[in-house]
Write a structure and sequence with these properties.
Elements: H1 7-22, H2 27-49, E1 54-55, E2 58-59, H3 64-80, H4 83-134, H5 146-159, H6 167-170
Antiparallel strand pairs: 1-2
């Protein structure tokens, strides 16, 4: 059961989502984030899955590192977010991992590496273009935790906050706005 019902994690989530939303008001920046954040998440998970890991001569098709980082990210989201949103993020992470495995069989390790690296770089350029248009620097420049807020924020924007139990969090005001 997620711990998002606790007052401290809910308050923290309200602050992070409100601050993130305040930095993403321009429609073009929002649209770019809706495309680029998932692309960055996918490419990062895939790139991590390509790190060779061997144990006693055996190697894994999918890296322990990618699974570990994905599990840590999911743990953070389960602790912070309503269960429906955390479940959606779990499915997204699983889709990233599985698509990486499937694409690796088609493209090979080198081809998948090139694809994932290209997607990663292009998506980050898109993010910075959005922030240039917005006139605000990326949220993670003030706190790295905002790198973890981007994926659930995009899901909230795409699905609607009330459908996943985030209405009070996604529309909260930051302390400076209150």
């Amino acid at each position: 059961m997620p711990h998002s019902s606790t007052s401290s994690s809910h308050t923290r989530a309200q602050h992070w989502f409100a601050a993130y939303s305040a930095d993403h008001q321009h429609p073009l920046n929002q649209r770019l984030h809706q495309w680029c954040v998932p692309a960055i998440l996918w490419s990062l998970v895939v790139l991590l899955s390509l790190v060779p890991i061997g144990v006693s001569g055996a190697s894994f098709d999918i890296s322990v590192i990618a699974w570990g980082v994905s599990t840590l990210a999911l743990g953070f989201w389960v602790w912070l977010l309503p269960w429906r949103l955390a479940l959606i993020l779990a499915v997204v992470l699983l889709a990233c991992l599985v698509s990486g495995v499937l694409l690796r069989t088609e493209l090979g390790t080198g081809g998948l590496f090139a694809l994932a690296l290209g997607v990663f770089l292009i998506a980050w350029v898109g993010q910075f273009i959005g922030h240039y248009v917005e006139g605000k620097r990326p949220s993670f420049f003030t706190d790295l935790v905002y790198l973890m807020i981007g994926p659930p924020w995009v899901i909230i924007k795409m699905m609607g906050s009330q459908s996943i139990g985030m209405s009070s969090v996604s529309h909260a005001k930051t302390e400076s706005e209150a």
